[in-house]
Amino acid sequence: MKYQIIKRVFDFLSAVIAFLLLSPIFIIITFCLIITNNGKPFFFQQRPGKNEKIFKIIKFKTMRDLKPGDETNIHSLNRVTKLGAFIRKYSIDEIPQLINVIKGDMSVVGPRPLLIQYLPLYNALQKKRHTVNPGITGWAQVMGRNAISWEEKFEFDVWYVNNQTFILDLKIIFLTVKGIIIPKGINNNEGTNMPEFTGTKK
Questions:
Q1: Which is it for the CA torsion 28, 102, 168, 157, positive or negative?
Q2: Is 187 a member of any domain?
Q3: 18: buried, middle or exposed (CB in 10 Å: 19+, 13-18, 0-12)?
Q4: Which domain holds residue 25?
Q5: For 145-165, how does the pLDDT look when each residue is reduced to its tens digit (9 = 90+)?
Q6: Is residue 153 part of a domain?
Q7: What are 42's strand-pairing partners?
Q8: Using one digit for the tens of pLDDT, what is the confidence trace for 153-198?
Q9: Which tens digit of pLDDT belongs to each residue from 30-51?
Q10: Sign of torsion, CA 139 113 62 10?
Q11: What is the SS3 string spanning the chain?
Q12: How large is the angle between the packed helices 82-89 and 3-36, nearest 10 degrees?
């Protein structure tokens, strides 16, 4: 049996179990965000998945919408709500992505799904990150996340694609949980305090 088949079974079962275990948190946070975000608890955005197939990622909504008169280029950090900051600190905003895993759009472990506009900017090696399902967490996340450059992230992503095993996935999950409990070099979600990727210039 190929590892990808094993991985899909593991993804589905672990996502269902995790979602059931985390359902009390999911319900509480959803209710709180309905109140604080004018009835909008979730954030949906199109992202590229395996083979660059576009899917809609689901997250808890942690930023307020732009208000009339706001500059359209207002920094996203200035739009994060107090509750949103708490949710991001403990990676609670990733919980709804378990639904993406159950649906088969994502895996528990894999390269993070980034913005669609980055697709034309990857070089041939970096494009290999899209030969597997994107993940809720990944090798680049446990190796530094926003504390490392885009090029380093992509190197870690491609290394994972070439070396993925069940043991490696378990190691990444363990390091992710450890990083949530003891944050170190892992801050807010990708794209929040990272500069936009404009292509590799070498």
A1: negative
A2: no
A3: middle
A4: 3-181
A5: 777 899 999 999 999 999 999
A6: yes
A7: 60
A8: 999 999 999 999 999 999 999 999 988 887 664 444 444 467 889 8
A9: 999 999 998 999 999 999 999 9
A10: negative
A11: CCHHHHHHHHHHHHHHHHHHHHHHHHHHHHHHHHHHCCCCCEEEEEEECHHHCEEEEEEECCECCCCCCCCCCCCHHHHECHHHHHHHHCCHHHCCHHHHHHHCCCEEECCCCCCHHHHHHCCCCHHHHHHCCCEEECHHHHCCHHHCCHHHHHHHHHHHHHHCCHHHHHHHHHHHHHHHHCCCCCCCCCCCCCCCCCCCCC
A12: 160
Using an 8 Å Cβ cutoff, are 45 and 38 in contact?
no
User: 46 forms bridges with which residues in the sheet?
Assistant: 56
| 157 in any annotated domain | yes
* DSSP-derived secondary structure letter, 75: -
For residue 202, being part of any structural domain is answered with: no
Indicate the pTM of the whole model: 0.87
Task: Please give the tally of structural domains in the chain.
Answer: 1
